[in-house]
């Protein structure tokens, strides 16, 4: 069935598919964990029940999203040993320890405190529970720290030495590997993106319930908090993205050339192409709508600064321009839209109409999924722009794949597609169902079954212990059980 298909393309498609599904949930859970910590902290500080109710409301959603993120992330590591075994063999001495650190620090931290956070509200003290919430939030950040360090090293590899058979070995300082040139910029840009993703989801849910009931105090509070994030953090994200772009221009110039659609060099100032259709064969952007010299101003802060184009890069080292070009514009366009919504909300707030303008609420609902789309578009820009390399300028993607036949890779890809759509469609539907219910006073939070674990000693299914029976005899369905039965 799959004879004639390219195994390398299928392996790349499989990893892109699984990581796209996975990236959605950490992007949400990183921001939501911090939001939960803020809500619980405000409740402890002010004593206002609205914060506790919102904490319990979003805690249920976090539990589902966190579980889906863990499940979707597990299969990615297996692909390193199957479809990308050559990459694992050659780069494993560097990236393997970093991924192990993620498990030893972040995952263990999250796993240790998650149960207390989900089920311990009425079982431990308030301060201890808040500590658990903060530890889970810290764990999500630490997880992002290590994973983005790995990805950044693949983008801007430093601190390594070459061993036998082309293997990358760690050099004398792990600091050079961890804090490689692109890592600080990528970490800041990605984590802020996660916060904005969560803010726009929270804002959309708040707007949805405000349209139903403008007097809902819980919807008002979550919408107000989300719009503050949009207004204050979106400009910071645009600045962080600009700094990240300048770093990319320094270390990965051909990626920026593809993002800008610059097939040709511009010695006297390069235009910023708003829209167009890149044609890699003709080496031009058709029907281009340009802003003269603006690309030089953005990238070099000089209208007349020269910018090199893809004509200076060997053709076999150029990334796919069309994909990178449009993914970048989707990300930037959504970032500008987020900023516009934040400014709109400020105007409404200053006029005392934040909870009254239905147009603003509808716009917030439309922008609810924008963060997810933006982070996927950003990921596509980053990863496809790195091609044709897995380790930039050092290890080609074609040389990283395992020697597998196309039908083998295609079969696993098909299985992933079926399982992912079935499992994650159900999970997403359940999250949307939870969001559809309006937050209310005295939220229950995450429900816990009353049956509890089955104990092998002193208690059996179907038996209940009589607390007044000092002799320890059991009862069955309310009836005494005779000794010897």
From TrEMBL:
The domain of life is Bacteria
UniProt-listed Pfam families: Cyt_bd_oxida_I (PF01654)
Q: Where in or outside the cell?
A: Cell inner membrane; Cell membrane
Show the GO MF annotations: electron transfer activity; heme binding; metal ion binding; oxidoreductase activity, acting on diphenols and related substances as donors, oxygen as acceptor
Q: Which GO terms describe its biological process?
A: aerobic electron transport chain
Which residue windows does the record flag with biased composition (Polar residues)? 462-477
- TM stretches of this protein: 15-36, 57-78, 98-121, 128-148, 192-211, 223-240, 323-347, 359-380, 408-432
What is stated as this protein's family in its record? Belongs to the cytochrome ubiquinol oxidase subunit 1 family.
Q: Which PANTHER family match?
A: CYTOCHROME BD MENAQUINOL OXIDASE SUBUNIT I-RELATED, CYTOCHROME D UBIQUINOL OXIDASE
- State the name under which the record lists this protein: Cytochrome ubiquinol oxidase subunit I
Q: Which organism is it from?
A: Altericroceibacterium endophyticum
